[in-house]
Amino acid sequence: MSKSIAIVGDRFMLPSVFAEHIRSACGNDVDIRTLEQPWPDEPMEHGYAGSKLDGLKEFMGQPDEIIDFIGDAELLVTHLAPISRSMLERLPTLKFIAVSRGGPVNIDMQAARDHDVLVVNTPGRNASAVAEFTIGAILAETRLIRSGHEALRGGEWRGDLYRADRTGRELGEMTVGIVGYGAIGSRVVKLLKAFGCKILVADPYVQLSAQDRNDGVEHVALGELLGRADVITLHARVTPETTRFIGREALARFKQGAFLINTARGPLVDYEALYDALASGHLGGAMLDTFAVEPVPADWPLLRLPNVTLTPHIAGASVRTVTVAAEQAAEEVRRFLAGEPPRNPC
Q: How does pLDDT run across 246-296, given as a tens digit for each residue?
């Protein structure tokens, strides 16, 4: 008897790609139905600003719509569709959920456990994409790429950016601090080595690899990293401990003229404090790809600062990210159907 699998994708995580990989991994003895949501052409609900659905974060779709689509399916593969406690109570046949994200923020995990629903995710799906983007973000700020671009588009030739007192510094002469040494942070370390910079890592929960230790990477406390680094890049998860932990006290410890890069999550930063640090000149600049509220308001003060580069949460967006996520999800589906233990249980 074929197993029923519901796939809820979108215009980034294409449901057709997931269906193709699941059929390749599991054969044709699966009954697959797909739903394509309109993200990113339409914004998702962003629970960090106050969730409207049982405390879930970053989701898209109305409960009734999602429940009707899932129906009697035993397996669900999703990117953004929410699964709350009240929804699970209306989905008695659902036994497995694969979330094509690094964290199941759109799933009520306690409710899933209570209903004996196995949840798996796809950790590291966008690690390569975000790490590469982070290097580009660092260079855009430290080498004045953004400043020169904006001026030239406005008809101004910024010859003064060649002045010794204004021009940028090379990474090889700087110290870069990486906060968070998971799949992304550790990959940023690997990429940075080619530039010859001094690398510091702050993460109290993991140890450096033997290779990184041998290559001179230092594992230090967060306070020491903040005071020594010329560039600080965030790669931590949002927890009660890390929410707004880059606030006034932390920013005051940054070196004069240091740069902040955030390609992780918006709630890590106190944006009022960051605005003051940038406007006062204490920080040389910042590059932000994620925000506490998305999309950002049109009148957001940081949009008006000249020493900030902003992008619309695209660090993890690459074609390869979709393929990696689909491969991981398909393997988890295969393992569940075969009665094998999952690789990435949540």
A: 999 999 999 999 999 999 999 999 999 999 999 999 999 999 999 988 889
The pLDDT tens digits of the residues spanning 119-178 come to 999 999 999 999 999 999 999 999 999 999 999 999 999 999 999 988 999 999 999 999
Active-site amino acid positions? 265, 294, 313
Confirm whether pTM is higher than 0.85. yes
What residues contact 171, with CB distance under 8 A and at least 6 apart? 138, 139, 142, 192, 195, 196, 197, 231
Its sign, for the CA torsion 246, 252, 254, 258, is: positive
Reported as type and span, the H/E element at residue 271 is helix 271-279
CATH of 126-310, one of 3.30.1460.30, 3.90.1140.10, 1.20.1560.10, 3.40.50.720: 3.40.50.720
